[in-house]
Amino acid sequence: MSILQIVLFGLVGALLITSIREMAPQIAFWITLIVSVFLFLIALQKLTGLLAPIEKLAELANVNVLFFATIVKIIGIAYIAEFGAEIARDAGVSAIAGKIELVGKLAILVLAVPIVTAVVQTVTHLLP
Amino acid sequence: MSLELHVIFQIAVVGIAAAVLSSLLKQSGRDEIATLVTISALVLVAAVVVTNISHLFMEIRDVFSIQ
């Protein structure tokens, strides 16, 4: 998939949305959603090729598997929360967008608790 | 995975057709039918989009191994 195709796809979507918005605002929202979904799918496709080598590197560097899985999960949560928040903000409901971002941040914090405790344990081991 | 431009054009055509039809029906005094046309167009579009969103979420679940 060449970058030109992807950019033009986004531009065609934007053109359609701007021309339909006055006629049927609800349908324009749906088009926004589906263009975002397709672009996100392409991003995921690129990411899958990137994630395997990084995992191999983490194995080589003897990084704990639990930490690596947690970080991948956190990245996923960040992407999906951003996606939902941007869609909601585009539809004109920034209150809901803010709540989606809040929930995403809290979910990331909950996932990060084991890593933080591990860091604290290491520090307390180092201290006499 | 290919860029499915035709899906977006389909949705746009459905939207334009629904808008034109409902405005015509409204001008000829059949407001109920105009509302029905709008709602059915929305349901049609929602069916297509929701299928794709579920596909996206499955993919995200696979890639980031969430749950």
Topology readout:
The complex is a heterodimer of chains A (128) and B (67).
Chain A: H1 3-20, H2 25-60, H3 65-90, H4 94-126
Helix pairs in contact in A: 1-2, 2-3, 3-4
Chain B: H1 5-27, H2 31-64
Helix pairs in contact in B: 1-2
Keywords (chain A): Membrane, Transmembrane, Transmembrane helix
Pfam family, one (chain A): SpoIIIAC
Protein name (chain A): Stage III sporulation protein AD
Offer a concise description of the structure.
The complex is a heterodimer of chains A (128) and B (67). With 128 residues, chain A is mostly helical. Chain A is 88% helix and 0% strand.
Low-confidence stretches of chain A: none
Structural class of chain A: mainly alpha
Mean pLDDT of chain A: 90
User: Measured on Cα atoms, how large is the radius of gyration of chain B?
Assistant: 17 Å
Helical proportion of chain A, percent range: over 70%
Structural class of chain B: mainly alpha
Count of helical regions of chain A? 4
Shape of chain B: elongated
Give me the count of strands of chain A. Answer: 0
Helix content of chain B: over 70%
Rg result of chain A: 20 Å
- Please summarize the sheet with the most strands of chain B: none
Low-confidence region ranges of chain B: none
Distance linking N and C termini of chain B: 24 Å
Keywords (chain B): Membrane, Transmembrane, Transmembrane helix
Protein name (chain B): Stage III sporulation protein AC
InterPro entries (chain B): Spore_III_AC (IPR009570), Spore_III_AC/AD (IPR025664)
Organism (chain B): Sulfoacidibacillus thermotolerans
Verbal overview:
The complex is a heterodimer of chains A (about 130) and B (about 70). Chain A has four helices and no strands. Chain A has about 130 residues and is mainly α. Chain A has a domain of about 60 residues. The model of chain A has no long low-confidence stretch (mean pLDDT about 90). Chain B is an all-alpha fold. Chain B has one domain. In chain B, helix 1 packs antiparallel against helix 2. In chain B, about 85% of the residues lie in helices and about 0% in strands. The chains are: A mainly alpha (about 130), B mainly alpha (about 70).
